[in-house]
Design a protein that fits this description.
The protein is an alpha/beta fold and 397 residues long. The protein is built from 16 helices and 14 strands. The longest helix has 16 residues. It starts with a helix and ends with a strand.
Length: 397
């Protein structure tokens, strides 16, 4: 399928209409036979509030397309050749996504890596090793550009290939200090995706929307560190709903950042301690190609031909993803916390019950080795850390 310019405008106007999310979009397309006809009927329909829905004007839609183009982004519709194949197979796939960079990278086999924003130095070190190894094995690393595990995964996979999914618009990078990381991804031949319109500042409910795209792009999702009420667990649950693999990195029972990942393993997720644990698990999927999940598209028109029902009635995910739903009930992602100004507090944040070397700790915390050694001495005298062989340390209590 390839939309005409007029059809693309209609699709954009429809999905940007108040109260229209992915589920409602599909319902309207199927009911009225196309986005143009749905737009004509939209003002006669009423949402839950009883108010009539007025779609954006053609000029507003054209303005969004032009603004995206100025940043080098293009809007790709569900069913078009440039739309990622694996994401298209997901029930909650967005009708339109804006892509910057090399769209072709999104059709390469991919693995998602997500985890804590307040990651430990040990978690960051393992993430780097895992992402680099997966890249060397020919896999694209997908993540959400967040601080901590996400950012380390992107940086480690810059050369082999990485894709970032934004919670806001392309011109509203979140967190803002990761704008340089976005440029590095693009310069390295990666891709950056956004479902939300230009100028959109991400809200709490937008992070679960982003997370289902992260899992939808990949054959499996690896959770490195996650507390029990973590946004990373939403990504894992989406992966399950999408029929993808779920992996988890075990951690110390004494570290709250490992509670969520240890729970995933207990519930049946594949334990990951090295790259081979991921590559061996997805090898059968790579051999058979994209997993068949039913559904498809008619050729030519912009009419969706769905031969499967929506997700089960009452699914928390459909309710969260449609703007006319009740809003998220899972763990909406909070704004980024400010970095601790005190070196001691900063260092404690990167320490965990898992032993870590001084050099890696200094790198993770962005402090000099001399400052780290001095601070560790203070923490040792206070009984906060334990020293191990080979110059490693771990947090006590």
């Amino acid at each position: 399928m390839q939309l005409t310019d007029g059809q693309r405008l209609d699709w954009l106007r429809l999905i940007r209409s108040e109260g229209v999310g992915p589920r409602t979009f599909r319902t309207l397309i199927n009911r009225f036979g196309g986005a143009g006809a749905a737009l004509e009927a939209l003002p006669t329909l009423t949402g839950r509030s009883g108010r009539r829905i007025t779609p954006p004007s053609r000029a507003e839609a054209e303005g969004e397309i032009a603004a995206a183009a100025r940043l080098g982004a293009r809007l790709v519709a569900l069913g078009e050749a440039a739309y990622p194949r694996l994401l298209q197979a997901a029930d909650s796939a967005p009708p339109l996504i804006a892509i910057r960079g090399e769209a072709a990278i999104l059709d390469r086999p991919a693995i998602a890596i997500v985890g804590s924003r307040n990651a430990s130095a040990a978690g960051l070190a393992f993430t780097e090793r895992l992402a680099r190894g997966l890249g060397e094995a020919g896999l694209v690393v997908v993540s959400g550009l967040a601080r901590g595990i996400d950012a380390r995964a992107h940086r480690a996979a810059l050369v082999p290939g990485t894709a970032a999914v934004l919670a806001g618009g392309h011109d509203r990078i979140y967190p803002a200090n990761h704008a340089a990381l976005v440029e590095a991804i693009l310069e390295a031949g990666g891709a950056v995706l956004a479902e939300m319109p230009m100028g959109w500042e991400p809200r709490g409910r937008d992070f679960p929307r982003r997370n289902r795209i992260i899992s939808g792009l990949a054959y499996g999702t690896v959770v490195v560190e996650a507390a029990r009420r973590s946004g990373s667990l939403i990504t894992a649950r989406f992966a399950l709903e999408q029929g993808r693999e779920v992996f988890a990195v075990p951690g110390s029972p004494l570290d709250p950042r490992a509670e969520g990942t240890n729970d995933l393993i207990r519930q049946g997720a594949t334990l990951v301690a090295e790259v081979a644990h991921v590559t061996e698990a997805i090898a059968p999927l790579l051999e058979e190609g994209t997993r068949k999940q039913g559904g498809g598209f008619e050729q030519g028109a912009d009419t969706l031909a769905l031969d499967r029902p929506d997700l089960a009635e009452g699914s928390i995910f459909w309710d969260e993803l449609d703007v006319d739903g009740p809003g998220p009930t899972l763990f909406p992602e909070a704004p980024e916390a400010a970095e601790p100004a005190d070196d001691r507090a900063r260092l404690i944040g990167f320490l965990s019950p898992t032993p870590i070397g001084t050099d890696e700790l200094a790198r993770a915390a962005g402090l000099s080795v001399r400052v780290v050694q001095t601070t560790l001495l203070e923490l040792e005298l206070d009984g906060r850390i334990e020293r191990h062989g080979s110059g490693t340390v771990s947090l006590l209590g």
